[in-house]
Structure formats: structure tokens, C-alpha cells
Design goal:
31% of the residues lie in helices and 24% in strands. The chain is of the alpha/beta class and 825 residues long. The strands form five sheets. Strands 15, 16, 17, 18, 19, 20, 21, 30, 33, 34, 35, 36, 37 and 38 form a 14-stranded mixed beta sheet that branches. The protein has a nine-stranded mixed beta sheet with strand order 7-8-6-9-10-11-12-13-14, with helices on both faces. Strands 28-27-26-25-24-23-22-29 form an eight-stranded parallel beta sheet. Helix 23 links the parallel strand 27 and strand 28. Helix 3 packs parallel to helix 6, helix 11 packs parallel to helix 12 and helix 22 runs parallel beside helix 23. The longest helix has 22 residues. Bound molecules: pyridoxal-5'-phosphate. The site of pyridoxal-5'-phosphate has 12 residues, from helix 24 and strand 29.
Length: 825
């Protein structure tokens, strides 16, 4: 059965399952772990995995409806029918891993295991490019390197391959043994050791030893001799293996990097291997890239790739981007540009990202021929067509001879072109209006020309939003609260400056329970963008009630006047019979909006007399949840809140959700989480609570470019008012951001720094409306280079401090003319 799955009996034996039920299916070709990705139900076995936030067993009834007959579960579910087979095991993840190990054992070609703290994915991708001209290579999709990602990677192996590149990542002791059992690599690459995921390890030594377990059965091991910890550990543990080291300092190393000379962002390398010296140009000059490239090259040389091929490939090597970028395009469209991997798994990821986008009525996919090895072509294009139909893609455009050849497989509305240029000349005739367009092409098809054609041209200041980091932050807070506690995500003020539909879509995809906006208009915009989640409107003014009712938005009611007005509006519109949800706001000390304690009896009486509204929730807001010195006051607020909420709930005679905690409240007062929490700034990676910060990932990066560089002499002044006068010859840069973009005027005159090519550069002189000037005197920089305002190197906290405000104001103050670009890692 090499290469083609398992019979039910084989499968049950491998995972030592108890079998319930009988099926006529004789063959299982696919294992499914994500119910959304079903393509061939008849030959699929679904593995019901449990995670902190989800339980795959929940999807079984739905999958049965869609035709799946085999399930690997950890108990016998209630749904039963003659034709359904349940393979019951104690641990479904272990079962998946056993199957992966068995699958891998069918192949004799070399499997390369890649681990280390950083650079795994880059090394894998570059190595793939270096090996591709000579070998049929299969590799882990994206950064699939976890306990679940590794099995999914291994299931891609086929007998037509000649080498497999598999990433392994761990965060805890004990995990590597399981990965090793599956990958069982013949070759190993150890990239480096750092402090990522250090919290679960006692020492860096322990973490290193754990990672090196991946290579316990490998024969060949590639590493860098200049990392003392790594090289010492490898020599201690694995002196019996073929150790292949590269070095900058030791001429005796297998591969010796003799010299590196940087010229205009390109490096000139002299590499010595087996007594021969090779001279290569590499278009990347930073330290991390050098290290990653040397790991790849060292492996390739020893594996038998010719130095000529290596030279050719490295000359054109590009940084690896794992991003799926979402941008606004001309004519009410959005673009997702993904030129990364084109293996089936990555295509699925991109299609799923497209499926999340509801802000336009239509979805379009433009895709080139797929350079892929292993899977038979017809099968591949058939399953691609199926994936497209399943995700309700409205229009498909295939480019290239292969797409042409298999065009009959695509049943959805579509068009096919032999070349990219043929497509571009037809671009305006194609039905691409009002759509979200996924563009996915192999590099040789130069799809950037299509992107340029469609993209909105705006000035070069961009706010990048990392949707994966947002999801990370969301999940962090979800893990803090009890599983049954609901989560309301605050998307007021353009989602704290980061966007409407794009953010709401991802929150909807991740199944938050509620959204909250400040104004009815914001809610309407979300409904128009396809958001179906319940939405609470906080500043619900009376004029907006009709619109709110029409769009199923739920008002925050904070006084008698608005309560009465809302009830009247419902009556006027004839909306009686099924009560409209409202949210009662209580003032317990913030003194902003809300009913006060003495009002509550009267409030209850009005509510009891109004069957056309139903209280969905009762809530209040803490005034100082981030301030330890206000503990007594805050507890007082919470106690009062609980007292009033209890009184109302009892009086109403039905359950209402209670919520009082915002982001800092979740960090500091978790015991009072109630039925729901309201997550705001934390979602965007910022916390006023110091101890929370290490757990959050920054979501936004504000960047611009250098428009002009000039040299000024001692005595010359810069910007309005001549507040800055040079006392020596200086190089200064003008950057394309000013106070109209949200870069505050108070940040000028040396107060703030920006980050350019590895250097902090102070802002000099006054900040202008659209521009400001920075000191580039000792910095290697050119016009057009990127400038980070905040992001990885300069935090929003820092900018807020220097502007004497808080991160909330910085984030929400970024002007709407700054283009937002979204990406998923
Ligand atoms: C903005 C807001 C929140 C969220 O606050 P964060 O500090 O951003 O978490 C919660 N509740 C109410 C009523 C708000 O207005």
C-alpha cells in the first residue's frame, strides 16, 4: 500500500484503536484535523484533536452530514449509525503522530530535520531553493513545526520525492522525543540557540540538550562552530556522527567563510570547501541572513549540490516572507498577495484567509501554474478546483500552460491565460469589481505586475497590522479567563486605530462572543462588511436608534430618557413580539455614563413593564483597574456592581450577562470576571499592567520612508522656527510623516527617535504637518530606505511616554490617510 494511505484494518492496528461500526469504504487516503478543510469525504478519516480552546469532537455530526465515514476519537460519541466507523484511542494526537511515524517509515530517501531557536523556516526555504534545480524536494509548509504541524508535514511525503526538509520546534521538555520518533531524520541541521520559549526550561543548556534529541538517530549533523554552546554540546553528545561544521574563524571547519565584504547591500563571500575557494555574491547582508545562508550552503555542498548551482541560486536569493498581506486596492477592492509556498497546504491557508474576508461581495483567485513535485498533476489540479468551489470563490483566473491544460477541471466561473502579460492586457475586462482578490503565483510568473496594476497608490507611510499577533493576544486572554467566560472585543475607534472590517473579520473567525463599538455608524460599517456577531453600541444616541434596530445593533442604555426613547422607537417601527437586546450600564464610580444605585428600583420597574426589550447584559466600567494603589476603590466598584446586578437579575427573573473587566481588569482582578470580559487595548498588544507585557505581541508597526537626504554645514538650521542649528557638518534625512499623520509635534526637537537600518536617529527641528527631519550623520542610509516610527525596535510605550500621553492615544491618533496593511504570518 506504499504511497496510498491505509486500509481501515491497517489504520486501526497502527494506532491500537478499538473499532466500532462497519463501513464499505476500503481505503483511507486522507487524514483531516481541521473540519473546514474537507475535500474528499469518502476517503477521509477525521482525527478529533483537543486543544485548550477547541475540541474536534464537536465537528463530528457536521462532518457526518458532509459524507465523512471514519473518525478517530477519544471516546465513543453518541451519534451512531450503521455506516460510521469510530476508531477509539486514549489520545488522538498520539494516534496522529503514530500514523505520521508509520507513513514516514515507508520512505527511504533522506529526511533532513531542522531545529534551533531561530531561522528554521528561512533555512528550510533557502535550502529548498538551492536543492530544487537538482532534486525533487518536499518540505514542511510555512512554519509547520509543532506536535500537530510535523505530522501534517510528513503526510506530504511521496515516493517521487528525493529529499524531505522537515522543521521541528519545541517549547517544553519532552516534546522533542515525540517529534524525533516521527521525523527520524538522517541528516540534521542545528541553526542556533537563543532565549525564545525559555520559560519552560531550567537552563539554556537543558533546552539545547532537548533540541539536540532530534538528532539521536541521524548520521550527519550540520551546525556552526562559532557558537560555543552548540558546538560543545554536539561534540559531547554526538562525537560518533559525521559532524559538518562551518565557521568564520576556523580554517579547519568543513566549510570556512574566509571573508565577507559588504558593497551596497550586497555581500561578496569567499567560501573554502575541500581546498577550493568559491566566490559568491549574496544580496543580503545582515547577521541572521549570513548564518541562515551558511547553514543552507554547508548542507547543500555536503549533500552534493554543485557549487555552480549554489552560486546561481544565492545570487538571486530573497528574504523569506511568511506573510499573507491584505491591502486595499483601487475600486473598492482588497488584495491578498501571497507569493510564498505553493504546496497544497499553503494554498489552503491562503484560501482560508480569503474566506475570512467578508468586506466585499465577491471573492476572486488569480493563480499561476504550481511548481510542485510529488503529487500527480491531474490529481493536484482536481483538488485545487475542488478547494475553490468549496470556499465559494466567485471567479478564478488561471495563468500558465498547465492551468490551460487542466482548465476543464474548474467548474466555477473562470478564465485562463497562457501568460501574465496576456492576463494584464485583459485585466479591465474581467469581473474583478467589488471583490477581495487572492493573488498567488510562482516567482517566474512575475505576478507583481498584476499587483502594481491593481494596488492603490498612496503616500509611503504605512501602518502594518499583524493579524497573527492579534490572534495570539486574543488567545492569551482567553486562556486567562475561564472557558465559559464570554469575550467581548472592543473595536471602537476604528479598532484602536487598526481598522474596521479587517479586524472584525478576524475576530469573527476566531469566534469572539461580542463586539463593541462607540457609535452606531461604526456598527453599520461592520454589518456592511459581513459581520454577523452581536454588536453593542456604547454611545447610543437617540437619533441613531432607528438605524441600530434596522441593523440589529444592541444599544448601551445608561439613563431613563434613552431607555424610554428606545422602547418608543421599537413601537414606532412595529418591532414588537420578539424583544430587542439591550445592555444596562451602571455607574459605580467612573462617573461617565450609567444608572446609579438609587435608580435601580425604578429602572427595574420600567424594564418589567417593557416586554419589547430584553436585558442581554448588565455592566459597569472600572476607573483604575491598572492602578494597585486604588485596590480598595476598585473592589468597592466591583462590590457595588455585583450588588446591583444581582438585584436586577433577580427582579427580571431571567439570566443576564454581567461584565466589568477591561484589559487591565483581566490582568488584575481575574476573580471578578463575571460572565464576560471586555478586551480592548490588550488585543492590540499593549497593556498598562507591566507583568502582562511579556505575554503580548505587538500588533502594529508604523513605518515611512526617507524622501530626501542632504548635507548641512555648521550654522545651518533645520525646519520651521530655526529651533535646530547644526554645530558641525551633518547628514540629515527628510521623512514622510508629520503631525497630520499622528506623529505628534511634541516629538520633535530631539524628543523622539526613529529607527533606520539598525540605528536610532533623533528627530531634529520641529515636526511639520506632513514631514519631519532626522539626523543621519553616522548612518548608512539612502533615499527610499524604510524608517520605523514604532514597531519592533521602538515601542508604542516609548513614543507615548515621550509624547507625554498613553499608548491608547498614540494608536487611535494615527490618521486615516495612513494606509493600513494587514498580514498573517
Ligand atoms: C474602551 C472600553 C473598554 C476596553 O478598555 P481597555 O482598557 O482598552 O481594555 C472596556 N469597557 C468600556 C466600557 C470601554 O469603553
Amino acid at each position: 500500500m506504499q504511497n496510498s494511505g491505509w486500509s481501515p484494518v491497517e489504520l486501526a492496528a497502527i494506532i491500537e484503536a478499538e473499532v466500532y461500526g462497519k463501513s464499505s469504504t476500503q481505503h483511507i487516503a486522507q487524514l483531516l484535523t481541521d473540519s473546514r478543510r474537507l475535500t474528499f469525504p469518502a476517503e477521509t478519516a477525521f482525527v478529533a484533536l483537543r486543544s485548550l480552546k477547541n475540541d474536534g469532537h464537536r465537528y463530528i455530526p457536521d462532518l457526518i452530514k458532509r459524507g465523512v465515514r471514519f473518525f478517530i476519537t477519544d471516546h465513543l460519541p453518541e451519534v451512531q449509525s450503521e455506516q460510521i466507523v469510530f476508531l477509539v484511542v486514549s489520545d488522538t494526537l498520539r494516534a496522529l503522530q503514530k500514523l505520521a511515524a508509520e507513513w514516514r517509515s515507508r520512505f527511504e530517501f533522506p529526511v533532513v530535520g531542522i531545529t534551533g531557536s531561530n531561522g528554521k523556516t528561512v533555512v528550510k526555504e533557502w535550502l529548498y531553493q538551492v536543492l530544487m534545480p537538482q532534486f525533487s524536494v518536499v518540505r514542511s509548509p510555512r512554519s509547520y513545526n509543532s506536535q500537530i504541524g510535523v505530522p501534517l508535514s510528513l503526510f506530504q511525503l511521496r515516493s517521487t520525492h528525493e529529499i524531505a526538509l522537515i522543521e521541528a520546534g519545541i517549547s517544553q521538555v519532552g516534546e522533542m522525543d515525540k517529534l524525533e520518533e516521527m521525523i527520524h531524520p538522517d541528516w540534521g541541521i542545528m541553526t542556533n540557540i537563543g532565549t525564545a520559549h525559555q520559560e519552560h526550561f531550567e537552563s539554556i543548556q537543558l533546552k539545547l540538550d532537548e533540541k539536540l534529541k532530534l538528532f539521536q538517530h541521524a548520521k550527519h549533523l550540520v551546525f556552526c562552530d562559532d557558537q560555543p554552546l552548540v558546538s560543545e554540546a554536539i561534540r559531547r553528545l554526538y562525537s560518533d556522527k559525521n559532524l559538518i561544521a562551518w565557521s568564520r574563524y576556523k580554517e579547519s571547519a568543513s566549510v570556512f567563510l574566509k571573508s565577507e565584504k559588504i558593497k551596497k547591500g550586497c555581500v561578496h563571500w569567499e567560501v573554502v570547501w575541500k581546498g577550493e575557494t568559491y566566490v559568491w555574491n549574496v544580496p543580503l547582508s545582515d547577521q541572521a541572513s549570513t548564518e541562515n545562508m551558511m547553514h543552507s550552503i554547508t548542507f547543500a555542498l555536503e549533500f552534493g549540490v554543485s557549487p555552480e548551482v549554489i552560486g546561481e541560486v544565492v545570487k538571486g536569493i530573497e528574504p523569506v516572507s511568511m506573510r499573507l498581506e491584505l491591502k486595499k486596492a483601487r475600486g473598492n477592492r482588497s488584495l491578498i498577495n501571497d507569493t510564498y509556498n505553493s504546496d497544497p497546504e499553503s494554498i489552503r491557508i491562503a484560501l482560508d484567509f480569503l474566506a475570512q474576508q467578508n468586506q466585499h461581495p465577491r471573492k476572486v483567485v488569480i493563480m499561476s501554474d504550481v511548481e510542485q513535485s510529488g503529487v500527480e498533476e491531474l490529481t493536484f489540479y482536481k483538488s485545487l478546483a475542488e478547494m475553490l468551489s468549496e470556499r465559494s470563490v466567485d471567479f478564478f483566473i488561471g495563468v500558465g500552460p498547465k492551468m490551460h491544460e487542466f482548465k476543464r477541471e474548474f467548474e466555477l466561473p473562470s478564465a485562463f491565460y497562457q501568460s501574465t502579460s496576456a492576463l494584464i492586457s485583459d485585466l479591465n475586462l474581467l469581473p474583478l469589481q467589488e471583490s477581495c482578490i487572492l493573488i498567488k503565483g510562482a516567482r517566474s510568473f512575475e505576478f507583481e505586475h498584476i499587483v502594481n496594476n491593481l494596488e492603490e497608490k498612496v503616500h509611503q507611510t504605512v501602518l502594518e497590522i499583524n493579524l497573527s499577533a492579534l490572534a495570539h493576544n486574543l488567545n492569551h486572554f482567553r486562556k486567562l479567563v475561564k472557558p465559559e467566560t464570554k469575550l467581548m472585543a472592543m473595536v471602537k475607534a476604528y479598532a484602536y486605530g487598526s481598522g474596521n472590517a479587517e479586524i472584525a473579520n478576524i475576530l469573527q473567525f476566531h469566534k469572539v462572543d461580542y463586539l463593541a463599538v462607540a457609535y452606531a455608524d461604526e456598527g453599520v460599517a461592520l454589518r456592511n462588511a459581513g459581520i454577523t456577531l452581536p454588536i453593542m453600541v456604547m454611545n447610543a444616541d437617540i437619533e441613531g436608534f432607528e438605524t441600530m434596530i434596522e441593523y440589529h445593533l444592541e444599544p448601551e442604555i445608561f439613563n431613563f430618557k434613552s431607555l424610554q426613547a428606545f422602547i418608543n422607537t421599537l413601537h414606532r417601527m412595529g418591532k414588537i413580539g420578539s424583544p430587542h437586546p439591550i445592555h444596562i450600564k451602571l455607574d459605580t464610580g467612573m462617573h461617565r455614563l450609567g444608572f446609579e444605585e438609587p435608580d435601580t428600583t425604578a429602572l427595574l420597574n420600567v424594564l418589567l413593564a417593557s416586554p419589547d426589550v430584553r436585558v442581554a447584559s448588565v455592566f459597569s466600567h472600572l476607573a483604575a483597574s491598572d492602578d494597585d494603589s486604588e485596590l480598595e476603590f476598585t473592589k468597592g466598584q466591583i462590590e457595588q456592581f455585583i450588588r446591583i446586578a444581582e438585584f436586577l437579575e433577580q427582579g427580571l427573573g431571567y439570566g443576564v450577562l454581567r461584565h466589568i473587566l477591561n484589559s487591565s481588569g483581566i490582568s488584575n482582578y481575574l476573580n471578578y470576571q463575571g460572565d464576560m470580559v471586555r478586551l480592548g487595548i490588550g488585543l492590540y498588544g499593549i497593556s498598562p499592567v507591566f507583568s502582562e507585557r511579556p505575554h503580548l505581541r505587538p500588533v502594529s508597526k508604523l513605518r515611512t520612508i526617507i524622501s530626501q537626504i542632504r548635507t548641512i554645514q555648521a550654522g545651518d538650521s533645520v525646519s520651521y522656527g530655526r529651533t535646530f542649528v547644526a554645530n558641525r557638518t551633518m547628514k540629515i534625512g527628510t521623512i514622510a510623516i508629520g503631525y497630520a499623520d499622528g506623529f505628534r509635534r511634541s516629538l520633535g526637537n530631539g524628543v523622539a527617535d526613529v529607527y533606520v537600518n539598525g540605528n536610532r536617529c533623533p528627530v531634529i527641528g520641529r515636526v511639520c504637518m506632513d514631514m519631519c527631519m532626522i539626523d543621519l550623520t553616522d548612518v548608512d542610509a539612502q533615499e527610499g530606505d524604510e524608517v520605523e516610527i514604532f514597531g519592533e525596535h521602538i515601542s508604542v510605550y516609548e513614543i507615548a511616554d515621550k509624547a507625554q500621553t498613553i499608548p491608547y492615544e498614540i494608536l487611535t491618533g494615527i490618521s486615516s490617510r495612513v494606509k493600513r496593511v494587514y498580514y498573517q504570518e
